[in-house]
Amino acid sequence: MTLKDIVTAIEAYADPSLQESWDNTGWQIAPMESSDECSGVMLCLDVTPAVVEEAKDQGCNLIVSHHPLIFKGLRSITGASQAERAVILAIRHGIAVYSSHHPDGAISLFGNVYLCNIFLLSIYIVIIVPVNKHHHIRILLNGPGLS
After folding, report:
1. 3-state secondary structure of 65
2. Which of 3, 36, 42, 65 fits a disulfide with 60 by CB distance 3.0 to 4.6 angstroms?
3. Is the pLDDT score of 136 beyond 90?
């Protein structure tokens, strides 16, 4: 499966045209060739230097995040901020970064289940809640895409 195949599947589910005008959904660090084979995908909420290092250690050449790595733009890349350090590391290690950020929380929450289906992954979730709140969790977990 190529990097382009994966992003095409993500965009079929979470159309980038639905983003808000101020948002930055899409390639944060594009691969030199979108036809490159994907060696592995790291899913995360935020791209940090630690996430990039873990992706490298796990042999992943694509990070798919919910929050954009580059949100307001970068005037320089000096390593002064966490975002700049993550950009430097991703480029150094040949890791592409794609963000799928949408204002609809359901796309984010259930999108992770959808992405795991694309990558043929299983999800195991451990939830610890107070005894008197367990009914709220049951309602949430009976939502679309979760079983």
Report:
1. strand
2. 42
3. no
